[in-house]
Design goal:
Blueprint (H helix, E strand, L loop, with lengths): L8 H5 L5 E8 L6 H17 L4 E4 L26 H13 L2 E11 L2 E9 L5 E6 L5 E2 L2 E2 L14 E3 L2 E5 L8 H9 L4 E5 L3 E2 L5 H22 L3 E4 L2 E4 L14 E4 L3 E3 L5 E4 L5 E8 L2 H8 L21
Parallel strand pairs: 1-2, 2-3, 9-10, 10-12
Antiparallel strand pairs: 1-17, 3-4, 4-5, 6-7, 8-9, 11-14, 12-15, 13-14, 15-16
Helix pairs in contact: 2-3, 4-5
């Protein structure tokens, strides 16, 4: 019989509490990279002033979610890493002494582009990068046209605030990605994301989609005994395809609801549907507590999982 036990008070006191103040900057697109970055600078300054040591930005925060259509002109938005945006974000992290996680359209070479998250250490240096591994191709999310799948693997990035398991948006639906980050020693799972509804969806469908998204994150937290931070964008963004008369080009209503979860999937903080700086304090020591009573990593049957490397079991 499976039994879940509470951690005795004496045992809790014997484990070191490490509290990390975090901030998620949930924003809408303001039209241009220059304006968006200026607003990000103001938001990060406010978050740092309120005590945050780790700040997470949303996916592709420099501009609109351009993947709603396919256009070679959009590749002009991409930039190298290091490049102009990393220079600006680096200076921002250093100015406020925070670990900052950004999300950029990376130009690696002519014809080779990635959806890349960048971690800046508090001294402004680049601590590491993660290239989005799972690339969607769905109505309104034509990312395969733009992004080459990542080739850096699922490796956490070491920083002064902890070891960050950084994943991006569509990666959030894959338990394998979260598990591999956990197995590599991640102390937190972070998801910059851009997800929303088609405006024509009815209210019941909207609730199902948003609940599924939140449940996937809660599942990653529980299954791996780790805190999870997910930062989404907000606001309606019209599809560029609408101006060309394409059917179904209604745009996307990004629903926000950025959140911070504890290692048992509990809500530590949750945003609404408007621009917001979501602040929370994470007890990094709780993962040790939880993993002692729910030792999922101990009981994994790694000898029986070989078929996970198959696309489908016929």
């Amino acid at each position: 019989m499976d039994t879940m036990y509470a951690v005795p008070a004496a045992a809790r006191q014997s484990m070191t509490q490490r509290t990390l103040p975090v901030a998620l900057v949930q924003e809408r697109n303001h039209g241009t990279a220059e304006v968006n970055l200026a607003i990000i600078e103001a938001r990060v300054a406010e978050a740092a002033g309120r005590g945050a040591r780790l700040v997470l930005l949303q996916e592709l925060h420099n501009g609109a979610y351009f993947c709603q259509h396919e256009s070679v002109a959009e590749f002009d938005l991409a930039e190298p890493i290091p490049g102009p945006s990393t220079q600006r974000l680096s200076a921002l992290a250093q100015r406020h002494g925070v670990v900052l996680v950004g999300s950029l359209f990376e130009r690696r070479a002519a014809g080779l582009y990635h959806n890349t998250a960048v971690v800046f250490e508090a001294d402004g240096t680049i601590a590491g990068t993660y290239r989005k591994m799972h690339i969607p191709d769905d109505p309104g999310y034509h990312e395969k046209f733009y992004f080459t799948p990542g080739d850096l693997g699922f490796r956490p990035i070491d920083t002064s605030v902890g070891r960050l398991g950084l994943l991006v948006c569509w990666d959030q639906w894959y338990p394998e990605a979260a598990r591999l980050m956990a197995l590599a020693g991640a102390e937190l799972l972070l998801y910059p994301t851009a997800i929303g509804w088609e405006p024509g969806d009815d209210d019941a469908e909207k609730r199902r989609q948003r609940n599924a998204w939140i449940l996937s994150h809660r599942g990653h937290a529980v299954a791996n005994g780790l805190p999870v931070l997910s930062c989404n964008r907000v606001g309606h963004e019209p599809s560029p395809a609408a101006s060309k008369g394409h059917a179904g080009a209604a745009g996307i209503d990004f629903w926000g609801n950025s959140h911070v979860l504890g290692p048992q999937g509990e809500f530590v903080a949750e945003a609404g549907g408007d621009p917001e700086i979501l602040l929370a304090e994470i007890d990094l020591g709780r993962s040790e507590h939880v993993r002692r009573i729910w030792p999922f990593l101990r009981d994994r049957r790694i000898d029986a999982y070989g078929d996970l490397l198959r696309r489908y079991i016929d």
